[in-house]
Amino acid sequence: MDDSRRIVAADDVPEDGTLLFTVSEGGDRTEAILTRLDDGAIVAFSNYCPHWTDVRLDKGAGALVRNGELVCQKHGATFERDSGVCDFGPCEGAVLETIDVTVEDGSVLLTDDDYAFENLGAAQEYDRSSGNQIGF
């Protein structure tokens, strides 16, 4: 097993949610999510809604999963967890970018040669405030 490709222990991927991690491609960092399917398989997708690519599905506490589908909380779009296909919402028919992973010896490994694993969690610190500029 190549430790530089290890993302996390497979048991740490939630059964009804996602786990956020960061990868890099040619110096550019991007976020991805791991999710566990009903059959126990683990898949990874880019952490961005295809409708507006600045909208993150997992903001750090796990993406919303409803009726077995990933949900974009900004638009209400739903994505099949096995394929990443949007089956409802403004980006219906679009597909989340797949990032290749495999499970080996109890660990989730990044097998997508386009990316290098950087860290668990977000690619950067985000301001969790509402962003309102109202002064009192």
Automatic annotation (TrEMBL):
PANTHER family: PTHR40261, RIESKE DOMAIN-CONTAINING PROTEIN
One Pfam family linked to the record: Rieske
GO molecular function (one): 2 iron, 2 sulfur cluster binding
Entry keyword set: 2Fe-2S, Iron, Iron-sulfur, Metal-binding
Annotated protein name in UniProt: Rieske (2Fe-2S) protein
Domain Rieske: 5-110
Gene3D superfamilies named in the record: Rieske [2Fe-2S] iron-sulphur domain
